[in-house]
UniProtKB/TrEMBL annotation:
Residues 246-298 form the PAC domain. It holds the Pfam family PAS_4. The lineage of its organism: Bacteria, Pseudomonadati, Pseudomonadota, Alphaproteobacteria, Hyphomicrobiales. Residues 496-630 form the GGDEF domain. InterPro entries: Biofilm_reg_signaling (IPR052155), EAL_dom (IPR001633), EAL_sf (IPR035919), GAF (IPR003018), GAF-like_dom_sf (IPR029016), GGDEF_dom (IPR000160), Nucleotide_cyclase (IPR029787), PAS (IPR000014). Keywords: Coiled coil. It comes from Mesorhizobium argentiipisi. SMART domains: EAL, GAF, GGDEF, PAS. The keyword Coiled coil applies. Residues 639-893 form the EAL domain. Gene3D superfamilies: 3.30.450.40, 3.30.70.270, EAL domain, PAS domain. The keyword Lipid metabolism does not apply. Residues 26-53 form a coiled coil. This is EAL domain-containing protein.
């Protein structure tokens, strides 16, 4: 039971309890509040740390509640979407934020579409990873994680660059297979010239098994530094300038060490903003085309060299170098076959060891002389695969060993007529046969080398012919000037003499005319080689033409006697008989000498003076030596004066005629006279026609002078007849110039008419050489003269070039054997041969033959014995005046002067 006190006390106790409880409650609340504050502070600190932390991560992050309100987002999120952080407040709806993004151009889609999309992925169970392609071109990767309360957390990462590389990588992966099929090099490089994409061809040639091994490498990892620098420099320029490089030829060395010519094209790569972010390259191996081009242009160049007469050594060297540039491990060599046809001489071997080429220079060809000597000998290619074991090289193995050549393929170089000109050889340091390409190049080289060598030989021949006499092989006039000038320079420098010797063979023409040109040629050759034997190798013997020679005695002691000794040697050598079958030909020489410096300072002066001296030798009866004397040349001035005098001589009546009788050898009676002109100069005295007739010819004065002779001879002949002397023929010499005058016939007709002389008493003497100048014209003029009744004879017969066939057609009555054949008739077999040949020729052609210059009984006896018809000469009478002839004929009529 409950009492009052107990109730009160119970109530008091309740009050105290309540107070205590309330105190406790207050205390508990305060504790709680403190704790709560502490907790809140802790939480706030955590929240700040969290915010700081999420603000510093590289991804954007955002939290949304179930009502699509923003709880939290970091700074990166604001950055990614281009919204100022101040605008992004907690509590903003997703729709608001999307509006901001649309406005900033950083939305992937329109607001409604985006909201729908966000809600759909938020309603899915798990997280969603997706990429948003923003309107501004960036790619954002978003991982959306729904929360159990219906809100969500999402991270946003800008993966634009990554996406690009991913594209590249994925494209690369798909392209790789494709580009690996391409045989050319294909690659992509970044802006640092590092390979990003490489095809198999490029990787393999640069020693990489897989193209991926090349990624990240640069040219410095593939090529020599210099080449790599060049590539980098050009690529950097291309990347900077943005201009492509098209088909540039570049030389590289690949991993195997082989050199290659590439035609490279490099094009800059541009992104959407047109910025250059790399380059793509493609390179095509043009080594073969380049070699073919080089071969073609090298070939053309070599042919041009040949055509422009470049030195043979240069042509051959170029040729060998061209071949070597086309091949690897090949050393070319050209050896030339010597003129003796037995030895090989160095031609060109620019890459062979010099000691080796020196050692084989001059090697004799033969059946077992390595590759080259054997090829030249056999006239066929000799392919030695291994020098060490091939028996052909047995004798040369030790020679070649130090140089390491192991195979040698030699092919003869042939002329177009198949003559061996040399050999072309390819040496290799490996034991092998030639490849097809090498064989083709061997064919090409031997052909071109053949052309070059043949051309050189032809040029040498032409040069030799231009400077030498073909008959004797002696230098000719062209070379004379050069040699003489050199000799003068030398003599000038060392105080020596140069002797210039003019040599003219005496009566050479006779040999030619009587025994034929072959005999003449043999005589000239024999005489030429004898002259060469008489002088030193440094002297020069020149044939000027015909029977004229010049000897230049080089580096002479200044001593005329020593020069004379050499000349006497030459003279004696020339005079030695030359045996031609049964004939023993003998000739003599008229020699004139002029010495530098006494007789002339120049080549021309020395030659002119030596010539003048030679003429003096001729004048003095031939077969002698004359040293030049200044007075010889006064003849030039003399000639000039004479010419002036000659012009007036006719008007002044200074000419006169002498007559030389011609005698019939059988009856001994005079039947004709030859009219011979004389010039009686008032102060110079009697001048020989030998001196003035050539001058009259040269000046044309011979025409009026010849006219005067014709008239005077006809007049005198008629006068003799009128004086009662027995009628006879008067012979008048007609010179070449006169004969060519178109009105010669009229002149003759006039002379006969004026003098009232019957034509049959006039005979015209024409020289053989005059007739032969123009046979047709001569024959027609002779026919015209003959039809007048005038007789014609051929003077100086034997000294010209009449052919028998031509002679038959000449309307001539007589042949006159030149007196040069009569001079030594008794002693000289040749003269005898000529004289008797002319006599028998006359008999055959039914022509009378007269010998002129007959002086001795022996000559007369020979002529009679050989049935010569007539003679003229000092033996019977010298040329005499007209009165002298009258006296002589009167005596003859009285029976006192015949030859019997
Ligand atoms: N166009 C003309 N030419 C003429 C004329 N008159 C002469 N000539 C030619 O001049 C050359 C020299 O003549 P010339 O000095 O008169 O000599 C002649 C004779 O004197 C000489 N001869 C005669 N017999 C002998 C002899 O026994 N011994 C010897 N040493 N000489 C002799 O021969 C000359 C005659 O020669 P050719 O005429 O060949 O018969 C001479 O070429 C004359 O032709 C003229 O008017 N016109």
């Amino acid at each position: 039971m409950v009492t009052k006190s107990s109730k009160r006390s119970a109530e008091a106790a309740d009050q105290a309890g309540i107070t205590a409880l309330s105190k406790l409650a207050v205390a508990a609340y305060e504790d709680l509040e403190r704790e709560l504050k502490a907790t809140i502070a802790t939480l706030e600190a955590q929240a700040r740390r969290f915010e700081t932390a999420i603000d510093n991560i590289s991804q954007g992050i955002c939290f949304f509640d179930v009502a699509e309100r923003l709880i939290l987002c970091n700074r990166r999120y604001a950055e990614i979407y281009g919204i100022s952080p101040g605008k992004l407040q907690a509590g903003m709806t997703l729709a608001d934020i999307i509006e901001h993004r649309v406005a900033a151009g950083t939305s992937a889609m329109e607001s409604e579409a985006y909201l729908a999309f966000a809600r759909s992925i938020n309603s899915s169970n798990g997280s969603t990873n997706w990429t948003a392609e923003l309107n501004d071109g960036r790619t954002i990767q978003i991982i959306h994680q729904p929360m159990p309360d219906g809100g969500w957390i999402a991270t946003h990462e800008d993966i634009t660059e990554l996406a690009a590389s991913r594209v590249m990588v994925s494209e690369r992966v798909s392209l790789q297979a494709l580009i690996d099929w391409v045989p050319d090099y294909l690659w992509v490089k970044d802006t640092e010239s590092r390979f990003v994409v490489v095809n198999k061809a490029l990787a393999t040639d640069h020693g990489r098994h897989d193209p991926s091994e090349m990624i990240g490498l640069s040219d410095f990892d593939l090529h020599a530094p210099e080449l790599a620098r060049q590539f980098r420099a050009s690529e950097q320029a291309l990347l900077r300038g943005g201009q492509p490089m098209i088909d540039k030829e570049e030389f590289i060395v690949d991993a195997s060490g082989a050199g290659k010519w590439m035609s490279s094209t490099k094009v800059p790569l541009r992104n959407a903003e047109n910025g250059v972010f790399g380059l793509v390259g493609i390179a095509h191996d043009i080594t073969q085309r380049k070699l073919a081009d080089d071969l073609r242009s090298g070939q053309a160049h070599i042919l041009e060299m040949i055509a422009t007469s470049a030195p043979l050594e240069e042509v051959l060297e170029r040729l060998v170098r061209l071949i070597e540039s086309q091949l690897s491990d090949i050393f070319g060599s050209v050896l030339l076959l010597d003129a003796d046809g037995a030895h090989l001489r160095h031609g060109a071997a620019p890459s062979l060891a010099k000691d080796y080429t020196d050692a084989i220079d001059g090697i004799r060809i033969g059946p077992k002389v390595g590759s080259c000597g054997t090829a030249a000998y056999r006239r066929e290619p000799v392919i030695v695969i291994d020098i060490v074991s091939d028996p052909l090289w047995e004798d040369f193995r030790d020679l070649v060993r130090p140089y390491g050549y192991r195979s040698c393929w030699s092919t003869p170089i042939l002329s177009h007529t198949g003559v061996v000109l040399g050999v072309f050889a390819m040496y290799s340091k490996t034991v092998r046969e030639p490849t097809k390409a090498e064989s083709n190049l061997i064919d090409f080289t031997t052909r071109i080398a053949g052309i070059a060598i043949e051309r050189k030989l032809a040029e040498d021949r032409i040069h030799f012919m231009a400077n030498h006499d073909t008959l004797t092989g002696l230098p000719n006039r062209a070379l004379l000037g050069d040699r003489l000038s050199q000799a003068i320079l030398y003599a000038q420098r060392y105080g020596r003499w140069v002797s210039v010797v003019f040599i003219d063979l005496d009566n050479f023409k006779l040999v030619n005319d009587t025994l034929g040109h072959n005999a003449g040629d043999l005589l000239l050759k024999a005489v030429a080689s004898r002259m060469v034997e008489c002088v030193r190798a440094t002297d020069t013997v020149v044939r000027l033409g015909g029977d004229e020679f010049v000897v230049v005695l080089f580096d002479q002691e200044p001593n005329a006697e020593l020069v004379a000794e050499t000349l006497q040697k030459i003279r004696a050598a020339v005079a030695e008989p030359v045996h031609l079958g049964k004939h023993h030909l003998r000739t003599t020489a008229s020699i004139g000498v002029a010495n530098y410096p006494d007789d002339g300072a120049t080549a021309d002066a020395l030659l002119a003076n030596a010539d003048a001296a030679m003429y003096r030798a001729k004048e003095l009866g031939r077969d002698n030596v004359q040293f030049y004397a200044p007075e010889f040349n006064s003849s030039g001035h003399e000639r000039f004066l004479l010419q002036e005098e000659l012009r007036n001589a006719l008007a002044r009546g200074e000419f006169t005629l002498l007559y030389q009788p011609q005698v019939d050898l059988r009856s001994g009676h005079v039947f004709a006279v030859e009219a011979l002109i004389r010039w009686k100069h008032p102060s110079l005295g009697l001048i020989s026609p030998i001196k003035f007739i050539p001058l009259a010819e040269e000046t044309g004065l011979i025409v009026p002078i010849g006219d005067w002779v014709l008239h005077e001879a006809c007049r005198q002949n008629k006068a003799w007849q009128d004086d009662g002397l027995p009628p006879m023929v008067v012979c008048v010499n007609v010179s070449a110039r006169q004969f060519k005058e178109s009105n010669l016939i009229n002149r003759v007709v006039n002379a006969l008419k004026d003098c009232d002389l019957e034509a049959k008493y006039l005979e015209l003497e024409l020289t053989e050489s005059l007739i032969m100048q123009n046979v047709d014209m001569a024959v027609s003029t002779m026919n015209a003269l003959q039809s007048l009744g005038v007789q014609i004879s051929i003077d100086d017969f034997g000294t010209g070039y009449s052919s028998l066939s031509a002679l038959k057609t000449f309307p001539v009555a007589r042949l006159k054997i030149d007196k040069s054949f009569i001079n030594d008739l008794v002693t000289d077999e040749n003269d005898q041969a000529v004289a008797s040949a002319v006599i028998s020729l006359g008999q055959k052609l039914n022509l009378r033959v007269i010998a002129e210059g007959v002086e001795t009984n022996d000559q007369v006896a020979f002529l009679r014995k050989n049935n010569c018809d007539e003679m003229q000469g000092y033996h019977f009478s010298k040329p005499v005046s007209a009165q002298g002839i009258a006296k002589l004929l009167n005596k003859e009529q009285g029976g006192h002067t015949s030859m019997e």
